[in-house]
Design the sequence.
């Protein structure tokens, strides 16, 4: 097969948009089925009748839905789709900016990185960390465009993410470090940096207070009742909303009681992902700093493994944070390569990780996105080959 039929960049881009399409298809399915108890239920925890953690954003959706007379589920699904496309387009621009350094495809195609992780396990996708990931992506595009509006929008989205879910506060160290690097590069003024940090600190404090003072309710009825009044089925309240009745002691007990062989399988994937991250870092003169950054970005999320069984999500939190920081380092001036790249080894490593599909919990899943990607890439190759053959046939006839 001639190389020109399918370049490495084309393959990566086709794979990327296949993954995004997979996520959107499952989102459409959620809407047709009346909403997913976790994927949309997480966004609709509310404080309409009682204060509870994670409820401020849900109440905002309810108020906007009532004000505009728009179906509440439709409003949430459209918001998720819009945020996903904002993230997808922004990250695609970043991909285009770093594509000349093939090592970065090792990170972008990691099954623990956001888009492929969600595509392989759509049931764990589009939770409130979507706000945080969109914020990171906007910061990265801001580096490319040198536009301060991107930075302001990113801070606003990140603040919304922290208000929506207390776990998103744990992304704050990585986000602040990225803001610091922007300040070092002269992309933010001292005044803008102080304003951003003040806003983020204030919102993080509010989120922490809600978590401490309103960690759980005796029953989920005050959260569920406003949704039942707006047409949701009672089963919708048995997912994320049902967890508002569970306190930290219950979460610790459930997590401790659910170790299994599947958990060790996820652990092996995490170790392999870590090994690949360290191998990636070894190619650059800043190797030690990149490897320390990988370890540092893991620390905020480690406690989550003790309090909830969404272990795949926590791995995704860590790996995604690190990938965003690595992309930022490249965009801010480039990482200096210390040794020659072995393209055959790089391809072998990428092929080795694509079939690994961690779920958002403690087990592995069928890599549905990878299977779809393989089919689409095959079609792409076949169509390109047919078009090239036809073009050559036309050219030969024209030359006679």
Sequence:
């Amino acid at each position: 097969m001639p190389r020109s039929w399918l370049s490495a960049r084309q393959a990566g881009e086709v794979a990327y948009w296949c993954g995004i399409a997979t996520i959107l298809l499952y989102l459409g399915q959620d809407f047709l089925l009346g909403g997913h108890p976790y994927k949309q239920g997480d966004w609709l925890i509310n404080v309409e009748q009682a204060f509870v953690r994670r409820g401020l954003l849900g109440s905002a959706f309810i108020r906007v839905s009532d004000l505009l007379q728009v179906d509440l589920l439709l409003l949430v699904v459209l918001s998720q789709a819009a945020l996903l496309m904002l993230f997808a387009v922004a990250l695609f621009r970043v991909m285009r900016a770093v594509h000349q350094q093939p090592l970065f495809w090792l990170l972008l195609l990691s099954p623990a990185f956001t888009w492929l992780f969600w595509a392989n396990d759509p049931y764990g996708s589009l939770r409130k960390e979507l706000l945080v990931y969109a914020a990171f992506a906007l910061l990265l595009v801001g580096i490319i465009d040198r536009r301060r509006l991107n930075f302001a929008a990113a801070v606003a989205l990140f603040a919304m993410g922290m208000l929506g879910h207390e776990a998103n506060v744990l992304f704050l160290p990585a986000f602040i470090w990225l803001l610091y690097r922007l300040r070092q590069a002269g992309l933010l003024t001292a005044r803008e940096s102080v304003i951003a940090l003040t806003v983020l600190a204030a919102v993080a404090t509010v989120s922490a207070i809600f978590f401490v003072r309103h960690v759980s309710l005796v029953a989920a009825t005050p959260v569920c009742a406003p949704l039942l009044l707006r047409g949701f089925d009672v089963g919708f309240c048995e997912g994320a909303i049902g967890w508002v009745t569970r306190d930290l002691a219950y979460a610790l007990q459930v997590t401790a009681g659910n170790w299994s062989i599947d958990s060790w399988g996820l652990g092996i994937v995490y170790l392999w992902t870590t090994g690949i991250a360290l191998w990636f870092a070894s190619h650059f003169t800043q190797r030690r700093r990149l490897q320390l950054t990988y370890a540092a970005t893991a620390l905020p999320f480690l406690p989550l493994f003790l309090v909830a069984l969404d272990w795949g999500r926590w791995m995704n939190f860590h790996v995604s944070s690190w990938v965003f920081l690595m992309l930022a380092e490249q965009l801010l001036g480039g990482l200096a390569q210390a040794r020659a790249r072995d393209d055959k080894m790089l391809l072998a490593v990428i092929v080795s990780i694509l079939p690994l599909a961690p779920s958002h919990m403690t087990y592995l899943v069928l890599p549905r996105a990878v299977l779809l990607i393989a089919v689409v890439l095959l079609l792409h190759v076949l169509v390109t080959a047919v078009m090239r053959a036809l073009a050559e046939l036309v050219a030969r006839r024209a030359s006679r």
